[in-house]
Design goal:
The protein has no helices and eleven strands. It is elongated. The strands form two sheets. Strands 2, 4, 5, 6, 9, 10 and 11 form a seven-stranded mixed sheet that branches. Strands 1-3-8-7 form a four-stranded antiparallel sheet, with no helix packed on it. It is mainly β.
């Protein structure tokens, strides 16, 4: 079992910055990838950014150049630095992890979400 707890969300002004954190706890063989998704009211959940255990990253086009995902394996924590925030970034942000608990078996885990509101 892997538990994910997000923190760092809040209310910021247009153009401001926030840093989200996601701490993973529990038991696993390895966490293959971690990422951030977001869901705005009335919209589908979408991928924001992901990072693999090897450090490979990918971003949604809408956030590329503004957001940076990073991972501290020693702390089992993934971060999302969000700069130049826009009102359209307003959403609940969810931490995601793909973990191996038994070799050959991958499982996906989700945090409870942390809300981000960008005011104009």
């Amino acid at each position: 079992q892997v538990r994910l707890v997000e923190s760092g969300g809040g209310l910021v002004q247009d153009g401001g910055s926030l840093r989200l954190s996601c701490l993973a706890s529990g038991s696993w063989i390895s966490i293959n990838a971690m990422g951030w998704y977001r869901q705005a009211p009335g919209k589908q959940r979408e991928l924001v950014a992901r990072i693999t255990s090897g450090g490979t990253t990918n971003y949604a086009d809408s956030v590329k150049g503004r957001f940076t995902i990073s991972r501290d394996n020693a702390k089992n924590t993934v971060y999302l630095q969000m700069n130049s925030l826009k009102p359209e970034d307003t959403a609940v942000y969810y931490c995601n992890a793909v973990a191996t608990r038994v070799w050959g078996q991958l499982s996906t885990y989700w945090g409870q979400g942390t809300p981000v509101t960008v005011s104009s």
